[in-house]
Amino acid sequence: MGDTSQIAGEWPDVIFHGGTVMAESAPGTDDVTAVAVAGQTITWVGSDAEALRLAGPATKLVNLGGRFLCAGFHDSHNHMLSTGLGLLLPTLSRSGSIPELLAVVQDQAETAAPGEWVVTASDWHESGLAERRMPTRSELDAIAPDNPLIVRRGGHNVVLNSLALERFGITEASEAPDGASYLRDGGTLTGQIVGSGYVAGLLNQLPKPGLEDYRAALEAVQQQYSAAGITAVIDPGLTLDEMDAYKAVYAEGQQKVRVSMMWKLPTPGGTAAEAVELLDSGTVKAQLDDVWLRTLGVKLCVDGGVETGFYRDPYERQDDPGYPCGKSFQSATELADICVAANRAALPVGAHCVGDAGIDMALTAFEAAHSMSPISDARWTLIHMLYPQDDHWGRLNALGAGVAAQEPLHYALGGGFAEYLGRDRAANIAPLSQYVRNVDAPVGGGSDSPVAPFQPLRGISSSVTRRSRSAGVLGQEWAVTAEEALRMYTSGSAWCASDEHRTGTIRAGMLADLVVLAADPRAVDPDDIAGIGVELTMAAGTVTHGSLDQ
């Protein structure tokens, strides 16, 4: 018998049949090979014979021919708007050396008018360069002497040339504010600055993109995401202007990817006290009902990335000797104040935490909010939680909080972690099987694009192999199965988005977020998963990639 909860009297618009379907069905249901869709909704799952009997005169029949059908991929932590803006700039990700990177940046600078700001894409990491280092201020001065230049890398690091430092009023005598570091070589500024909030504050002083820029960015990125099988993302760390841009573009009907927005606090250049005031003012409220664009909660950063996480033990390589273990971006009191205020505002918090000391601080802040009043049913998450320790799991589960995991960070940045932490500690970065085994809640899967590749099949492959791009296999014991990885990228991320009641699994009544793959990821060599073709993507019943005529 199939799932009999078909909507009475409604002909399906589409029936997929003849496939291998990863579905959640009623007990006693036979193996699922067919799915019916009407409007935005899955109306029936079951066998081919039963499905075909449901067809009406206008129903489109799609014979899968044995291909694999699963819930659409949901990325639990994906800076989609930032990724899209980066797509409008020359990519640095293909650079294999400092000279190659500088050549791309120089070409970009030469198109700018003298004195105009030049800001690069952030889609690269120095571990992929032959020199395994950041460019220097002097190297940037040589290629852009007449323009203030900012080379972005990820969300926590920038390198500035001398003119950009001058524009920001940073001199050799300047001391970095709390939560940031000015890197030096022999006492001289290298131009590299780290610190999420401080860097965001610097970038916020630059000319802002206009609505046309946001529209072009979202058009470009949604096309690429749909082609990768992505139907939904949590876009964390957005400014109010960026949230308004999403609303404006999506109101025009320009949507292919369902988005849950998270507001970044403190705001760029703002303080924790201002963040609390904004939360108490009701400036942003949770809004979870809309199908395409939702306001989910608040994102805050406890620490940084590869070389700027906050650890209990010292780094093996230390860029800032004054802080051998790294440091947090806010104090423990400030983090707790923000989380308590967010709880009052019924806005769940996603806390970016990389190192084990950063995880300690995030959990302590969550506990402070929970002690004032139980954290609401909306999902509080530890984002990344890349270096957990045994004493973290009980605290996490006592709060009912979850983990939004990004294995692609391990894939893309494994070489960097090995250099900064040592290979043994780097092997324990993003221990997926620990999350699956120790966290009571479903574990979300995601990418942290543009820091790491956004393609879910790439992430699923490395989740199974633990193969990094530049350091080989790291931590094979923490691998998960392809089935577990698929669930992280579907039902797990839906839980992180407080959306598991309508997406993330294939069963009647759920939104028709679906992806058709050329092969079953569970049935091929793990190294071949990344190359599986994405043949059709459907988000909320709308075909966003491929065609039903196949």
Strand order of the biggest β-sheet: 7-13-14-15-16-17-18-19
Radius of gyration from the alpha-carbon trace, in angstroms: 23 Å
- Which class of secondary structure composition applies to the elements? alpha/beta
Q: Given the structure, what is the number of helices?
A: 17
Cα shape: globular
Biggest β-sheet strands, sense, barrel: 8 strands, parallel
* N- to C-terminal distance: 28 Å
Beta-strand residue fraction: 15-25%
- Uncertain stretches: 4-8
Overall strand count? 24
What is the arithmetic mean of pLDDT? 93
* Helix amount: 25-40%
How would you explain this protein's 3D organization?
The protein has 550 residues and is α/β, with parallel strands linked by helices. Helix content is 32%, strand content 20%. It has an 8-stranded parallel sheet with strand order 7-13-14-15-16-17-18-19. A 5-stranded mixed sheet has the order 2-6-22-23-24, with helices on one face. It has a 5-stranded mixed sheet with strand order 8-9-10-12-11. The radius of gyration is 23 Å and the shape is globular.
